[in-house]
Amino acid sequence: MKQVQYTCPYCGMNEDDTEGLKKHVVSQHGTDPLPLSPRAIRLTINQQNYELKVEPEWTLYQVIHDKLGFIGAKMFCDRGTCGSCTVIMEGRPILSCMTLAIECDGKTIETVEGIGEKDHPLIEKYVEHHAMQCGYCTPGFVVTAKALLDRNPDPSEAEVKEALAGNLCRCGTYPQHIKAVMETAEKMKAE
Ligand code: FES
Ligand code: FES
Known about the structure:
By secondary structure, the chain is of the alpha+beta class. 38% of the residues lie in helices and 16% in strands. It folds into 3 domains: 31 residues; 76 residues, Beta-grasp domain (Ubiquitin-like (UB roll), Roll), CATH 3.10.20; 74 residues, Orthogonal Bundle (DNA polymerase, domain 1), CATH 1.10.150.
């Protein structure tokens, strides 16, 4: 069964891949396939600058995980429902599986690797509270929690729950995340 089809923006015809779509646009519509060509984008990820060419259909997840090697973000649902691919862009948590890389030109991004490098107290509290089992969802939770604490250093339990509501864990570690985030906030206040 075909999972993905690429639709011609001029006539609506579907092709199986981008190469087929490019050929179709050139042969049937006689137009320059520039809108479908790779574009150079610049990203600042964890304070390092990157410039690379991306295909128009590549997601930000494909770029940061597959091309640049930031493997902390995880692919789980690929449908914007689980939060495991979360990164922080311009201070806000976003789903990298639902974001086109081409739209991120010039943006500043923080991944779980950057959070770990800074030795953020969240890491210590996550370990202390064993807020993971298989660990697959954990980076997405940590990144979402970091974004919360950046904008609200003193969240209530309800605010933590609300912030993490978009992150799913098949292992059922939810209570541990609340404890880890609340204690991180307390520790940061005390420092
Ligand atoms: S993999 Fe992106 S939201 Fe699930
Ligand atoms: S720890 Fe296994 S999915 Fe969350």
